[in-house]
Design brief:
This protein folds into 2 domains: about 130 residues, Probable inorganic polyphosphate/atp-NAD kinase, domain 1 (Rossmann fold); about 180 residues, Tumour Suppressor Smad4 (Sandwich). The chain contains 11 helices and 18 strands. It starts with about 20 loop residues before the first strand and ends with a helix.
């Protein structure tokens, strides 16, 4: 047989579309234009499943139709990310079945996107176009509040500011409405509405009970020290509080490091209480924003389950959305966390 006459036809290479294995949830109401951004993402990542949604029902329906993507991204703000995570938690109760979750910054504060190192949207899309089915991830903890998962939640001044910001936004007319939806809107709401109301009333009293096991107090050097190895049921704090909040994400948004110890210990959230009057808080504003310690009137713990009981109903926010007014509220760290796309590592590759 003349081997030189045998023709070998090469098998065609398997073509993998850019963005294959990715699914992207786009908030139709995102600050930076949901429909336009959805088209931009679909063009940059033609192999990805891109869905524009307006409701929880639409998110649930879309997730049921997906065929096992390795990464699902939320394009929006913190509220969009939490809506996706809660929908995934409902749909896939086993932790090992959850895909990697990522955040594309399209919202107002973008706390999670900043904490995870997400760059501008166009750069995110460039990186995602070359991502593998084994992207770099970080394990991230969550907080459960009244059956809903979030990355931070608080009662007091922070939630009061959200109330006032929402009222200001509703009253704003174009073109002032555009300015009101920026960081300046929060500044104006705080200066013109929230601070005067806080100054007119004393801070409510709060009793914080530890309902978990070991709890750690953060000392003045920022070092966690175990309070008691059998601390279940003990009172951690009993006194006035301008803000009492918990978080597993270091930021509140706009790079405000409200929870500088949030990532110190896996499985725990950073519990913070600020016991200062509004004048003292304003004067300490720069250090408060940076998450500097020690800070007068600030108390920090690492805990897994606490109950707060207030002397009067106070506004409560959850992940940047208002929950309503409560006299009693519990915060619990679920036994499992999630794997989030680590933009810091992806940028260094």
């Amino acid at each position: 047989m003349n081997l030189s006459r045998i023709r070998i036809t090469p098998r065609p290479a398997r073509v993998v579309s850019v963005g294959a294995g990715l699914a992207v949830l786009v908030n139709a109401n995102a600050k930076r234009g949901g429909r336009r951004v959805a088209a931009q993402i679909a063009k940059a990542l033609p192999g990805a499943s891109v869905q524009l949604t307006r409701s929880t029902h639409e998110i649930d329906t879309w997730l049921r139709g997906l065929t096992s993507p390795h990464t699902i991204l939320a394009a929006g703000g913190d509220g969009t990310a939490m809506a996706l995570i809660n929908a995934l938690w409902r749909a896939r109760p086993e932790p090992e079945t959850l895909p990697t979750i990522g955040v594309l910054p399209l919202g107002t504060g973008n706390a999670w996107a900043h904490a995870l190192g997400a760059p501008k949207l166009h750069r995110c899309l460039e990186l995602l176009a070359h991502i593998s089915d084994n992207p770099p991830t970080r394990s991230v903890g969550l907080v459960e509040v009244e059956g809903t998962l979030t990355h931070f939640s608080g009662a007091g001044w922070d939630a009061m500011l959200l109330e006032d910001y929402g009222a200001q936004l509703d009253a704003a007319k174009w073109p002032g409405r555009r300015l009101s939806k920026s960081v300046y809107g929060y500044v104006f709401a705080a200066a013109l509405r929230t601070v005067p109301k806080i100054a007119a009333y004393d801070n409510p009293r709060v009793v914080i009970e530890n309902l978990g096991d070991v709890v750690y107090a953060i000392d003045r050097q920022g070092v966690p020290r175990p309070v008691n190895t059998r601390a279940r049921g003990m009172v951690l704090y009993d006194g006035p509080a301008g803000t009492a909040a918990v978080g597993t994400c270091p930021e509140y948004g706009y790079r405000f490091r409200a929870f500088p110890f949030a990532e110190r210990m896996p499985g725990y959230f950073n519990l913070r209480v600020l016991d200062r009057n509004v004048v003292g808080a304003v004067l300490a504003g720069a250090r408060l924003w940076r998450g500097a310690v020690p800070l007068e009137g600030m108390h920090d713990w690492l805990a897994t389950h606490v109950r707060m009981t207030f002397s009067r109903p106070v506004p409560v926010e959850m992940g940047g959305d208002l929950l309503g007014r409560r006299s009693v509220v519990e915060f619990r760290a679920p036994s499992r966390g999630i794997r989030m796309l680590d933009w810091h590592t992806l940028l260094c590759r």
